[in-house]
Amino acid sequence: MPNITVRAAAEGMPKVNRRAPHPADDLSFMRIRTPKGSGIHYWHVETTGSYVADYAKGKALGREYLNYIGKHPTVGNSNLLGWIVNDMVALCAGKLTGTELGFLREVSEYALVVASFGQMQKGGAA
């Protein structure tokens, strides 16, 4: 099989960066830790103190997450939810706030719909 990169360079074509975008650069609730190289804050969210407002914010962040992984279905992103939840639990000392619960509700609702659709495809009960 020919090396496409070598051929592209020989033909004067620009090099294409096929590296997937990093979620810490794209998702509003993530931050790269400082100093550089010390990891990622997978859940970096300010709460308002209002459960209702925080819950709504969490649901919006859940939609942002779902849109992102739908757009970038990579192996790394298949692990992303676990890393996010791990940071949630660590930051909340085991007691989730409305923000986390709203986020998880949004993700759970999506999973429920997809799982139900899969059952319907198999001829099972929805």
Keyword list:
126 residues; mainly alpha; 6 helices; flat; disordered N terminus
Describe the fold and architecture:
It is built from six helices and two strands, in the order H-H-E-E-H-H-H-H. The chain has helices spanning about 5-10, 25, 50-70, 75-80, 80-90, 100-120, and strands at about 30, 40. The longest helix has 25 residues, at about 100-120. It has one domain. It is mainly alpha-helical and about 130 residues long. The chain starts with a helix and ends with a helix. The chain has a two-stranded antiparallel sheet with strand order 1-2. The protein is flat. Helix 3 (about 50-70) crosses helix 6 (about 100-120).
Query: Strands of the largest sheet, in order across it?
Result: 1-2
Distance between the termini: 46 Å
Please tell me how large the radius of gyration is.
Answer: 19 Å
Q: Report the count of strand segments.
A: 2
Give the helix tally: 6
How many domains is the backbone divided into?
Answer: 1
Poorly predicted regions: 1-5
What is the general shape? Answer: flat
In short:
The chain has 126 residues and is mostly helical. The chain has one domain (20-122).
Set out the fold topology.
Blueprint: H1 4-10, H2 23-26, E1 31-32, E2 40-41, H3 51-71, H4 75-78, H5 80-91, H6 98-122
Antiparallel strand pairs: 1-2
